[in-house]
Amino acid sequence: MDAAIVVGLQKAKAAFPGADLIVFGSQARGSLRPGSDLDVCALFPTLTKDAFELAYDVSTEIHRHLDLALDVVVCDRQQFNARSQETWTLEYQIRAEGVIV
Q1: Domain encompassing residue 51
Q2: What is the CATH number of the domain that holds 70?
Q3: What is the tally of structural domains in the chain?
Q4: Around 95, how many Cα atoms within 13 Å sit in the side-chain half-sphere?
Q5: Strand-pair category, 99-100 with 38-44
Q6: Helix 51-65 to helix 3-13 angle, to the nearest 10 degrees?
Q7: Whole-angstrom Cα distance, residue 15 to residue 37?
Q8: Cα separation of 27 and 32, whole Å?
Q9: Residue 2 has what pLDDT?
Q10: CB 18 within 8 A of CB 97
Q11: Which end of the chain is more exposed for a tag (fewer CB within 10 A), N or C?
Q12: Where would I find the Polymerase nucleotidyl transferase domain in this sequence (predicted)?
C-alpha cells in the first residue's frame, strides 16, 4: 500500500479515538487500476450515532488528508465480529483481505 495513503489514514484516524480503519478491496490486494477508489471500513467499539452520519464524518476527515475517491463502511465491533463469520458478507471479505491502518 502506498505510504502516503497510510500516513493520511493514520492522521484521519486520530479524529476517531478507539476506532480502527481497515483498508480492503483493490488497494489491500495490490490490484489497483486507474481510477480505483479507496475502500475503508471504520470499525468503532460502538456506534455513537447513525452509521451513515459516521460514514460521512469519516469520509470528510479522510478527505482532509487524502485526495482520493472513497467508499467508507462503518460498523461496530460486535456486529462486525458476528457478520465476519458468514462467508457471504462484506465483513467476511474485509476480515479476509483487510489491512488495519
Answers
A1: 1-98
A2: 3.30.460.10
A3: 1
A4: 16
A5: unpaired
A6: 130
A7: 22
A8: 6
A9: 84
A10: no
A11: N
A12: 11-80
CB atoms inside a 10 Å sphere around CB 50 = 10
How many residues are there in the chain? 101
Nearest-5° angle of CA 17, CA 20, CA 26?
145
Residue 38 cell numbers, joined: 479507496
Position 46 scores a pLDDT of 94
Please tell me the pTM assigned to this model: 0.90
In one letter, which amino acid is 35? G
Q: Return the DSSP state at 17.
A: T
Give me the residue label for grid cell 462503518.
74
Q: What end-to-end distance do the CA atoms of the chain give, in Å?
A: 10
pLDDT digits (tens, 9 = 90+) for 12-63: 999 999 999 999 998 888 887 877 889 999 999 999 899 999 999 999 999 9
At 22, list the grid cell.
481497515
Amino acid at the residue 23? V
Q: So what's the pLDDT on residue 34?
A: 79
Question: Do the beta carbons of residue 65 and residue 97 sit within 8 Å?
Answer: no
